[in-house]
Each structure stands twice: as structure tokens, then as C-alpha cells.
Amino acid sequence: MKKLLFALTIALSSTTFSQNIKDAVVQEGTEMSQNLAAEGGQKLIDALGDATFGVRAFGLVNSSSLGNFSDVKDLGKHGFSIGLAAKVDISEDFFVTPELYYSHTGFDELSLPILFGYSIVQDKLDIIAGPNLMYTFSKDSKGDLQNIGEGAMAGQIDYQGILSTFEFGYMAGLQYHLGNFMISARYQGGFSGKVVQYASQGTGVDFKQSNEEKIKTSYVSLGIGFNFGSK
């Protein structure tokens, strides 16, 4: 009987000791996670607090192949974009730059690039690249398409405009700093394309058939910027 009581006492003591160790490990892990989260959150707050802001202006040159729509004035060869930018430093050399632009290249567009950058020469020369979300405003238009192709030349082809659409694209380039001023050269394009609408009518046909086609546009841009409060 004494041996049984002794064994039960040892078993209960071992169970209690194991539970205490488990509770201590869980508590230590919880405290460590909370400390890491608090430290990471504080670093993020500090980084956002140190963010700098600026303005940008670019001239755009259409470098896309428009094919059948190359003679449409809405899809101009030149344009411009103006907007705002912020810079959040991740480390001494890496940073993130969210930007917002209004662009006009015959049609109107809003773009939101999120660019990741690396300072090749500290406070002087950066390389940037990242995704770009674009929204094209619809635009009704009219015009004959002369370059739609020989097969359709016997009939009548009318360009009718651009439809509102979201497009996912990309942007990459270099930027050089001169104090608070900067000069930037970039290349941008889209993956899915913009939706254009046109109507076709063959010879001797009394009605027109509406059609849609996507075109992928790309632009080379050169611009200047000014950063408020930069070093």
C-alpha cells in the first residue's frame, strides 16, 4: 500500500512539474511573440513617420504598337502625367515608393504604381521597379479607321472610343537626385490591355456590327520631381 501511495505521489509530482514547464514555455513564447510584434509595429510606425513626400511631372512618348488603331487620334503619340509620391525607407539602401498619377495621352487615366527601390549611389542614384494599377476613363469618339486592314477596306470601319477598364501593368526606371529635386527616366506598360470599341459595316450591308478589341500600350517617360523635407 505504501509503495502504491509513493508511486502515485511521484506520478502526480511529475505531472505537475511537466505542466509547470509547459505553462512556462507557453508564457515565454507568448511574451516573445508580443515583444516581436510590438517591436515590428514600432519600426513600421517609425518608418512611416520618417516618410517623405513629393510631386512629380512626366512627359510621355507612346512606344506601343497600335496595329489597326495607329491612326486614331485618341491614342496619341505624346502625353503627360502629374502626381504625388511618398518614400518609405526599409533600410539604408532599400525603400518603397507608392505613387498616384493622372495621365493624359489622348484619353484620361489614373495610375497607382507601388515601386520598390534600391539606392545604387546613396542619396544620388536609385533603381526602381514594381506593379502598376491603371484605370482608364471611358471616352466616346468617332472616326474612320483607315489602317484596319485590306480585308475590311471594301466596307466602313468606325472607331467609337475607349471603354472604362482596370488594367494591371508594370513600371521600372532610374532616378537621379539633386538635393530636393530629382530627374527620372521610366518605362511602363500593361499586361492585359485597354478595350477599344469599333463598328464595322461591309459593302451592301444596311447594319453595323459592334466589336471590341484590346490593345496593349507602353510608354517611355522622362520627368522631374521635388521632394519635401528630404535631406
Highest CATH level, the class of the largest domain = Mainly Beta
Placed side by side, the strands forming the largest sheet appear as 1-2-3-4-5-8-9-12
Structural category is alpha+beta
Q: Count of helical segments?
A: 1
Please state the CA-atom Rg, rounded to the nearest Å: 30 Å
Q: Into how many domains do the coordinates divide? A: 2
Shape verdict: flat
How can the largest sheet be summarized? 8 strands, antiparallel, barrel
CATH architecture term of the largest domain: Beta Barrel
- List the secondary-structure elements in sequence, H or E: HEEEEEEEEEEEE
The parts where pLDDT drops under 50 for at least 5 residues are: 150-154
- Beta content comes to over 45%
CATH fold description of the largest domain: Porin
Helical percentage: 10-25%
The count of DSSP E runs of length 2 or more, i.e. the number of strands, is: 12
Query: What's the pLDDT, averaged over the residues?
Result: 78
Distance between the termini: 82 Å
Question: Mind explaining what this structure looks like?
Answer:
It is a single chain. This protein is α+β, with helices and mostly antiparallel strands. The protein has two domains: 1-49; 52-228, Porin, CATH 2.40.160. Helix content is 21%, strand content 53%. The strands form two sheets. The chain has an eight-stranded antiparallel barrel. A four-stranded antiparallel β-sheet has the order 6-7-10-11, with no helix packed on it. Strand 4 (108-121) and strand 5 (125-136) form a beta hairpin. The longest helix is centred in the first third of the chain and has 48 residues, at 2-49. The radius of gyration is 30 Å and the shape is flat. 20% of the residues are buried. The model is unreliable at 150-154 (pLDDT under 50).
